[in-house]
Specification:
Layout (H helix, E strand, L loop, with lengths): L3 H18 L9 E3 L5 E3 H13 L6 E4 L13 E9 L1 H6 L5 E8 L2 E9 L4 E6 L3 E4 L2 E2 L12 E5 H5 L12 E5 L2 H9 L5 E4 L3 E2 H13 L2 E4 L13 E2 L2 E5 H13 L23
């Protein structure tokens, strides 16, 4: 099955969201805190409203950071998984590491994705079997095969907390960056070689980027046996995204360290108002 029509819908929705964002200035927006302590702006909510109007059709589900979760999505085969602004902290601070992230899953599999970073003018579009483009030009994951040669994108906050100190010297370079979705998009088009975190992330952080990495010929995992989206509790046990060969080597390397890859036992469901883990 091809999802080319849905990819066109994604591209149009990204453009519409970009129009909404023209009313806001990154670095000069007011924010409030959600129940989990994460920031949200009027821009997040306005983009969310616009995307929800444009994307889901009859019978299609919806999962977004900025929408109350509707369990009816679990009955749908096609489900839109959206983060209106992934990297809200960077958006508020005026750091150009945030994006609009739109993913589509079919029976739990990431089948199409679109990510747009208005601050850099980069549009990433694609899906497994449909190829991948960056601003209309074909792109693929890098063919780096050795960890020591890899440029790895890390969570900005994890890097600041020293959680990546143990990986210094194991890779060519580690670059901290904000948005999860943007990190995966850069890996998908070969502008970085890999990205991972051992910190749980929500599906809306990962779904679109996962579709793009797969479209670029790479692999994505949440360190479980089978990466699936549209779960009752949309919390993933971290993620790893990289090209095919490098993916296997990083996966073996991380597992050899004995790190945990799953949410701690008893992790509660995501609150209905949405609450992201810090990027």
């Amino acid at each position: 099955m091809t999802y080319s029509n849905e990819l066109v819908r994604i591209e149009k929705a990204l453009a519409a969201a970009a129009e909404v964002l023209k009313e806001f200035t990154p670095g000069a927006v007011e924010a409030t805190l959600k129940n989990g302590g994460d920031p949200v702006t009027e821009a997040d909510l306005r983009v969310n409203e616009r995307l929800r109007t444009l994307l889901p059709m009859n019978g299609e589900g919806w999962l977004s950071e900025e929408s109350v979760d509707d369990p009816n999505r679990l009955k749908s085969s096609l489900v839109w998984i959206v983060d209106p602004i992934d990297g809200t902290r960077e958006f508020i601070a005026g750091i150009p590491e945030w994006c609009i992230s739109i993913g589509l899953c079919d029976k739990g599999h990431a089948v199409a994705g679109g990510i747009y970073n208005p601050a850099t003018g980069e549009t990433f579009l694609g899906g497994p079997g449909m190829g991948l483009t960056l601003n209309g030009a074909r792109a693929t994951c890098s063919d780096i095969s050795h960890l020591q040669h890899a440029v790895v994108l890390a969570s900005r906050s994890e890097y600041a907390r020293g959680e990546w100190d143990a990986f210094q010297g194991e890779v060519r370079s580690i670059k901290p960056l904000g948005s999860v979705a943007y990190k995966l998009a850069l890996v998908a088009v070969g502008l970085a070689d890999a990205s991972w975190t051992l910190v749980p992330k929500n599906e809306w952080d990962v779904a679109a980027g996962a579709a793009l990495v797969l479209a670029g010929g790479g692999r994505v995992s949440d360190f479980s046996k089978d990466l699936r989206f549209n779960r009752p509790n949309p919390l993933l046990g971290g993620f790893l995204g990289a090209g095919q060969i490098l993916f296997d080597r990083i996966d073996r390397f991380l597992r050899s360290r004995g790190d945990r890859f799953e949410p701690p036992p008893g992790t509660p469901p995501i609150p209905s108002s949405g609450s992201e883990w810090i990027d």
